[in-house]
Fold each of these.
Amino acid sequence: MALAETVKVVRSLFPLALLVLLTVICGCTTDDSGNSPSPRARQGIIDLSTVALSGSEPVRLDGEWEFYWKQLLTPDDFRRARSLPVPAYFSLPDSWNNFKLNENKLGSAGYATFRLNIMPGPGNRELALRLVELDSAYKLWANGTLIVENGVVGTDAAGEIPRQAVQLPRFTIRDEGRPIELVLQISNFHYREGGISSSIELGQSRTVEQNQLRTWVLALLCIGSQAVMGMYHLALYFSRKKDTTPLYFGVYCLLWMVNSFTSNASDWVVNLLFTAVPAAFVYRIDLLCFIASIPVGYAFFLAMYPKEFSPRLQQFTWIISLLFVCMGLVVSTMSFTSAIPAFYLFSIAMIVYCLTMLFKAAHRRREGAPLILLGFIVMGGTGINDMLYDLHLIHSVYLIHIGMFVFMLFQAVALSSRFSKAFSAVEHLSDELSEKNQILEDEVSERTKLAHEIVHISDDERRRISHNLHDGLCQKLTGARLQCSALERKLVSTGQQQPQLAQLSLLLEESVNEAYDLSRGLWPVEHDLHGVSLSLEELAHHLSESSGMDIQFKHERACTECLNSRVLQLSRIAQEAITNAVKHSGASRVTVILNCLYGNRVSLKVEDDGVGRSAAAATKGGLGMVIMSYRARSIGGTLTVADAEGGGTSVTCVAPCETHSEHG
C-alpha cells in the first residue's frame, strides 16, 4: 500500500516537473530564425544573402572559419596581401584543445586569429554581434574597424589580461553588396579550453540587445529568488536552531546565488554591477561556490532523511570538496579549471545517488520526499546538462539557474506543506488542551468548593463543640465546683475540715479553667458578640497567661466593631502564628497587630523576637504554614513570612475588606 501511494503521488506530480524541464529546454534551444537548415560557414565564407538579418531572431555564425595558429593578424595584414600562411579551417563553436594542425594536437594555451567573410543581403542595416564564451581575451574587427576588445590579447600568460563578459558590438552595413569581413584575435593562457565555446550570433542590433536583456532579466530573477530563499531559510534556522535543515538549504541557496551571479551560465551578471572584477577572481568564486554546494546540498538531504542518506558519504564529500577548494585557492587558474572535469564526474555520481535515495525516501513516505524528489529531478537534469555542455559533449545551453529555481519552488511547496501540517497539529493540540484545561478548571473549581465546604464544616463543628463545652461541660463543672465550695464552707462552720474536699475544689476549679480555655481555642465565643479584635485580644491574653510569654495586642480599626464575615480566618491565622511563636521561636515577646489599611484592606501581623526563619527552618515543619496559606487564599488575601527587623519572624496577612468600604 505504501509503494502504491508513493507511486501515485510521484506519477501525479511527475508530468508537472517534466513539463517544466522540457519547457525550459525547448525555450532556451529554439533555432535562431526558424529557417531550416540554418546556413553554415564553409572555408571561411558564410552566405546570408537569403537570410533576413532584420528578422526576429539572430543568426549563428557557425561553421568553418579561417584559422591562423600562433598568428595575431589584423585587417591591414590581409589587405596588404603580403605572404600569409595557408589557413586551416576551424569549425566553430569549439575549443582548439584537440584540434590537429600539421598532425600535431594543439594544447589549451596559445593564441590565434580567426577570419570569416559574410555575404549579406541588400539594404542598410544596423547590426550587432553577440560574443559570449571566447577564452580568455580577444579583439574583433568588422570591415577593418575595431568594434570590440575584451581583455588584453597576449602571446604568453604574463602579457595576457583575461576577461569574461558578454559583448554586443554594433556596426552598420551599407547597400554596397560587398562582404563583411570579421577578423578575430584570441589568446588563452588562463582557462582549460581555448577558442570559441559558444556560437557568435549576428542580427539586428535591437533584437540582439533585447534577447540579451531577457537573458539577464531571467538570470536576475533566479538569483533574486535564490537570495530570498537563502535568507528566509537562515531566518527559520535562527528562530529554531534545533532543526538544521533550513541552515543547510539556506547556505545552499546562497552558494548558488553567488555561483549564478559570477557564472557564464547567467552570462556573467556580475559585470552589470562590477565592471572591473578580475577574470581570475570571477573564475574562482564561480567554481568554489559550485564545489562547496555539493557537500552542503548533501548535508541538507542527510538532515532531512538520515535513514536513507549515508553519513560516511557525507564525510567523503566534504573531503573531496575541501581538496578542490584548497586547489582553487593555491594553484593557477589554468590548473584549477583543468581539474574541474574530474569534479564534474564526481558531481554527476552524487546527483544519481541523491536521486536514488530521494526515491527511496518517497517510497518510505518520508515527509516532503515526493516534492523534493521531483524538484531535484529538474535540477539534477539541468545540472548534468550544463556539465556535459561545458565539457562539449552535447550541444545545448546553460540551464542550471532555472533548474535551481524549480528546485527551490518545490522545496518551498514542501516547506509550506510541512508548516501546514504543523499548524494543523498545533490547532488540534490546542483544541485538546483547551478541552482538558476546561475539565481541569472544573475539577479545580469543584475541589475549591469542596475545600471551602470542609473548612466551613470544620468551623461549624468547632463552634458546635465549643458551645457544647461552654454551655454544657463548663457549666456543669462550674456547678460542681460551687457545690463543692458550699459543702466545704458548711463543714468549716461545723468545725469539720476535710483536706481532700479542698483539693477536690481546687481540682474542679482547674478543670473549669481548662474547659473554658479549650472552648475558646476551638471557637472564640467572644467573636460572635464583639468582633475579631476582642477575640484576638482575649486569645493573646489567655496564651500569655498559659505560656508565661509577653504577648501584646495592638489594633487600629476603622469600625467600632469588626463586622467582616471573613476575618474569622484572620483569627485562625493569628492563633496558628502565635502558637508557632510560643512553641518554636524561642521568643520572649510576641506582638499581634490588626490594622485597617487604605484601599479597603485589613492587615494582620504577628511578630516575635525569636531565632528567626533560618534557625526555625532546621526544625521539621508541620501543616501550620500550609493551613495558614490556604486560609489566606480562601479570603482573597496574601500571606508573607519574613525576617522581622532586629531579629525574629514576621507573619503578615493582607486581605480585602468590603465591610470597611461600606462602613469605614
Amino acid sequence: MKKRPIEAIKNPDKIQNYWLKEKKTVMLLTIFGILYNVGMVARPIYQGKLIDALITRVSFVNLIKLALTFVFVIFMVQFFRYIKRYYVRQFANRTTATMRFMLYNNLLHKKEKELNDKNMGSLMTKTISDVDVCVEGMRKSTTEVFDTGVLFITYLITLLKYDVRITLYACIFIPVAIFIAEKLKKLIFKFTKAYRSQISNISDITYDAIDNAILYRLYGREADNKVIYDKELEDFEKKAIRANVWENAMQPIYNVIAMGGIIFVIIMLGEKVYEGDFTVGEFSAYISIFAIMAVKASRIARLFNTIQKSSVSWNRIKPYLKEYSQIDTYLGKINKKTRVEAKNLYFKYKSEYIIKNLNFVAEENHIIGITGPIGCGKSTLGRIFLGEHDYEGSLLIDNKELRDYSEYERSKIISYLGHNPHLISDTIYNNITLGDDGDITHVLNMVCFDEDLKFMENGIDTLVGNGGVRLSGGQQARIALARTLYHKNKILILDDPFSAVDMNTEKIIIDNLRKYYKDSLILLISHRLSIFKYLTQIILINEDKTLEYGSHYELLTNSKLYNQLYSLQQRKEGDEDE
C-alpha cells in the first residue's frame, strides 16, 4: 500500500506560503506564462502583415512563407499556453490536496469530546467547499497575473511603439474601469460573505432535518421546521442572486468603459492611414491589439472580485489549517518489536477506582480481548492509551512509560477506533485516506466491504453523507475500521468495532487481522465473546473492578462470570439461528 506523503508547510495560515511551497511549479508556469503572453502579440502583428502582403500583391512564394510563419507562431503560442495551464492546474491540485490534508489531519487529532460537541460532518463539508473556492481564486489570480498583467504590459509596449500619442489617448478609460472595480470590491465582499454565511445556515438546517427526522415526526415538528427551512431557503436565493449579479453583471460594464478609447483609435489612426503614415495591415493590427488589451485590462477589475470572493472562504478555513506534524515533531527511539506491559495499573474517576491492579504483558502478533459487563470500564482502559486520562502504576510501551511519550509520538504508535465512526461528508475514499494518496483496496477487502462496493455505482467515490447517513450502521462501522487499518500503527485499539456487523463478517475480519496484521498488537474491546476463542489472551473486568486474565479456555474453566456471559450469548445465538 503505497502512499504519497504530503509535505508539511510552514505557517499554513499565510496564503503566500502555498505559492512558496510549490515554487518549482510556480517557476515553470511563470516561464511558460511569459512566453505565451509575449507571444500573443505576434498574432495580430502577423495578421496585419498578411493583409498588407495581399494588398501589395507580394509574390506567391513570399505569401506562403509569411502564412507558414504565422501558423508556426500560432502553434508555438498555443503550445506555451498548454504548458502554462498544465502547471497552473498542477499548482491548484496540489494546493487543494495540502489544504484538505490539514483539514482532515485537524479532525483526526481532535479529542473525542470535541468531535461529539460539533457537527463535524457539516463543518468539514463547509470547509472543504471553502477550500475549493479559495484554491479556485488562487488559480485564477495566478492565471490573471500572466493572462492579464504580462499580456497587458506586452500589448501596451507594442502599441506605444506604433504611436505614443494615440496610445495614451486610447488608454485613458482603462484606469477608470479599474478604479470603479476597486471601489466596488468592498460591496462585493459584503454580498459574498452574506451568501457564503447563508450556505452554512442552509447546510446546518438540512443536516439537522436529516439527522433528527424521526424525532421531529414523532413530536409533530415537521410542518414548523418546513416553514423555517422555506424561509431560510428564500433568504438564501435572494443573497445568491445579489452576490452573483454584483460579481458577474459588472464585467460587461467594465469592458465597455475600458473600450471607450476605441473612438480615438479609429479617428486618429484612420487619419494616419489616409495620410499614408500607417498601412491597412498596421491599422488592423493596432485595432486588434488595443481591443484585446482593453478587455484584458477590464479583467483586472474581475480579478478584484474573484480575490474578494476567495478571501471570504480563506478567512473561514484559516483557523483549521494547522499542520499537526509541526507540533512536537521529535519521535524518540522506538523498538521494532512492539511490547506492552501493565504493572499494578490503577485508574479512577474522582474518588472511585474504575480499574484496579491490572497486570499483563502483550506483544506484536497478539490480539488481546477486553470484556466485561456494561459500564465496567472497558472503553476507559482503551482511552488510557490515548493519554486522555492519567493513571497510577506503570504502563510501558517498548520499555518506556506511556505518560512520557509526547502526543505526536503516541499518534505514531497507536491507532484508535472508538464507538462513533466519525465519518465526514465526503467520499468513501477520502473517509479512509483522510488526505493521503494511496490504494485502499486491501483494507476494504480486510473489512469485507468489497461486496458492498459492487452495488455502489460510484464505487470508492460514493458520497457517504453527513456522518455516514447514506450508509447502513454496519457499513459505517467497517469504513471506520478500514480507516484505522489504513493508518495502522504498532498498536491498534478497537473499541467495539463489530457491534453493527453480523457474526460471520466478524469472524472473517478477525481472521484477516490475525493473518495480515502480525506486526501489530491489537487490543479488541467487545462484549461479544463468540470470536474470543481466536484471541491470544483476554482481560475480564468484573463488576467489582477486579480483573481476571487468561485465554478463552482458561477463563471458561476458572471464571464464573466469563463462563456465564459466554453461555448466555451462545444460547442467544442458537435461538436466533432457529
Amino acid sequence: MKKKIFWLIGLIQFSILLSAQPDKSAKEQYLKEQLLINDPRDHRAETSLRATFQDSTWNDWQKRTGELPPDFDSLPSYYDLPDPLVLDGVPVTTSSQWEQKKEWIRKEYQYWISGKRPPAPTNLKYTILEDRYENSVQIQKIELHFGPEGKGKMTCELLIPPGKGPFPVYLTQWTHRDWAQIALKRGYLACVYAASDLKDDTWNYQALYPEYDFTCLMRRAWGASRVVDYLYTRSDVDRSKIAITGHSRNGKQSLWAAAYDERITAVVTCSCGTGGVTPYRYSDPPFCTQTLDDMASKSAHWFHPRLRYFFGREDKLPVDQNLLLSLIAPRPLLIHYSYVERQVSPWANEQCYQSVKKVYRFLDAEGNIGIFPRMGNHALAARDVERCIDFLDVKFGRKQIPWENKTFYDWDFDSWKANQGASVRTGEVRPVYLSGVNSVQDIEKRKEKIQRNLIWLLGNEPPGVSSGRVAETHPTRVDWMDQILIRPQVERSKLIKIGPYTSMGDHLPGYLYCPLPADSNKKVPVVIFLHQYAHAHGFTLGYSSNNCEYNTELFQSLVDSGFAVLAIDMLGFGTRIEEGSLFYERYPEWSKMGKMVADVRVCVDAMRTFDFIDPDKIFILGNSIGGTVALLSASLDQRVAGIAVVSGFTPLRKNTYPSEIKILCHLHGFIPKLGLWADDPESAPVDFLEILAGIAPRPLMVIAPEFDRHANRDAVEQTISSVAEVYSIYGQKENLQFETPMEINRLTNDMREDIIHFFQKIIKKE
C-alpha cells in the first residue's frame, strides 16, 4: 500500500514537473521566427573576433550548443525601462535591498549579455619593459602576468607627470593614447592598456578560463581590472581618483569594467551606443540605432550569443543598460555622445540617464551623474576630451569649472498636468464611438464629432497665417546640420531644397526629390514621407531588412516610379531636436503631435503651389511614429489622396500591452491630454478605429508586421475589420488594403514595392 502511495506521489510530482517545463516546441518555433528575421550575413573573422572561443559565428554556436531561445511567454514585458529600484516587485527602500538588487543585476547581465567573468587572480606579477623620461614625464611600459600558469597577459603604458604624487589616474585603452596625453597635461597619471582593436592582450582569456564564457567586451573589461590590480601596488596612485574612459566599443567596456569593479571611482563613456548607454529596448529598427541583430552579424564577439534571441523581443530582456549603469552609482558617471551621430538615439540615451539618475538620487548622489550631448560626428575632437576631463576635475574636487547637464527630452506628464491646473478637464469632451453606424450619413455625422475630439486632444494651435512664397532656397542658405546628417542622395532626380526665406509654414524646411524632367508641363504625384523614431537623423536614415541605412533606396524607388518625394524632419527629430526641447514651455496649450500634424498640413499647402505637382495626388507614407502622424493628419485633411502606413498604430482603448496611450503621452509626450485616460482607456475621446474611419473612403494601406512588438496584433486586426465595414458602407472596400507580413517593425524592400504598387493603383483608378 505504501509503495502505491509513494508511486502515486511520485507520479503527481513528475506530472507537475512536466507541466512546469517550458514547451520545447514553442522554443523551437521561437528559433524559426528568429532565423526568419535575422540578418543572414555570416560573421567570419580572425580568431580574436570569433563569436565565442569555440565558434566562428552565432549560427555555429547555436548549432553546437543546441540552445534554444528562452520561454518568452514566461518573461514579463517592459516597453519602458525596467526599474532599477524594484526588487521582486517590491520597491527598493533600504541599502541592503539595493545590494541584493545589484547582485541580481550582475548575475543576470552576465547570463544574458556579457558572459560570466572569472574571479580576480591572486598571482599578479609584472615586468617593467621600458622606463624613460621625456620632457620630465616618466614613461613606463609594464607587462602584467596572472591567471593559470601566469599565462594571462596585459600590457600597459604609464605617463607619469613630474612630482611625488599621489596622482589621479586617467585610465583608457591603447587606442586613445592621444586622450591620455591631454590628461597628462592636466595633472593625471595617464595609463593606456592593451584591450582594444589596436592592441588586444585579452584575446586568449577565454581559453585560459574555459569554464567562463565571458565575451570580448567583458574580457577587455576584466583586463582593465587587472590594470587596477597593478595600480593599487603603486604609491604614486591616488586610489580614490581612478577614472576610466573610452569611446564607442571602448566606451562600452569602460562601463562594464566600472560596473563590476568598484575600485574604479569615476567613468566617462563616449559615443558608446547600444550595449553602452543606449538601452536595447530602444535599439530596434524604429529607433534607427544599432540593433542586436546587426551587432550579432558584424560583431558577434562583443556580446553573449543569447542576447541575439531578443531581436524583435527586446521588451522581454530581463536586464537593460540602465540597470548596468546603475551599478556604477554613487560614483561619478558622465554620459557623452553626439546627438546626431549615426548609431545613437539621443532620446533613448536620455531615458537611460533619467532612469539611472533615480538611483543616484536614492543614494543621495544625484550630482555625480552627468550628461554631455555634443554636436558633431562619431569621432571626438580635443575640445570634447577636454570637456570630459573638466567633469572629472569637478567630481574629484580638483577644480571649480562650471558644469551643466543638458537634455532635450525632459518630459514628465505629472509636471505637465500640474502646470495645466484646471485648464484641462476631461468633461470638456465626450468620447465618440463608431458602433451602430449603417449609412454614409451616419458616418459623416460621426466624422464631425471625431474631428472635434481629435482637435481637442491635439491642443489649441495658436493663431497663425499661411506662408508666403514657397520655393527652392539658395544652396548657401541650407541648414548646416543637413551636411552633418548627409541627406539621401537620389540619382535620376532633381532635388529642390526648401529652406530659409522660401520655407513652408512657419519656417519649415524640406527636401523635395522630383523625377526627371521636373517641369510645369507634366504634373506628377507627390509622396510626403514621415519617418520613424529616428531622433538623431530625422528622415535621413531608415531600417530595411538588413541594416540601418540611408533612405536613398526608398526615395530612389519612388522617384523612378514617377513620384516626387517630400521629406521633412518632424518636430524633435534630426535638425529639429532643439526646436522641440522647450515646446511645452513655449506652447503650453498645444501638443507636439498637434505641431507635427500642422506641419503635414503646411506640406500639403506647399505642394499645391508647385506647378509640376498634381494637387489631387498628394499621398502620405508614414513609418512607425510617422505612420501615426500620417493617420491623424489624413483624418483631419481631406486633401490627402491616399495613405500608406507601416506599424502606424495600436488601439488606444484596448487596455493591453503595449499601452498606446502611455507611449504617446507618458513616454514621448506627444499627446499629453491622452494621459488623462491612462487609467480609463475605454473612455478615451477617440481611438484609431474612428481616426481611420475619418479617412474613409479614401485609399488606405495599413501594413502591420506579424512580429511587431510595438503593437497589439489582435487589436490592430480587430480595428481593421471594423474599418473594413465602414469602407463597405461607402461601397469602397477595395480602397482599404491590409497586410500582415512575417516581419518586425521595419519598412522592408518588399513592403516598399507593395506601397509603390498601391499608390500606382490609385493613380490608374483615377
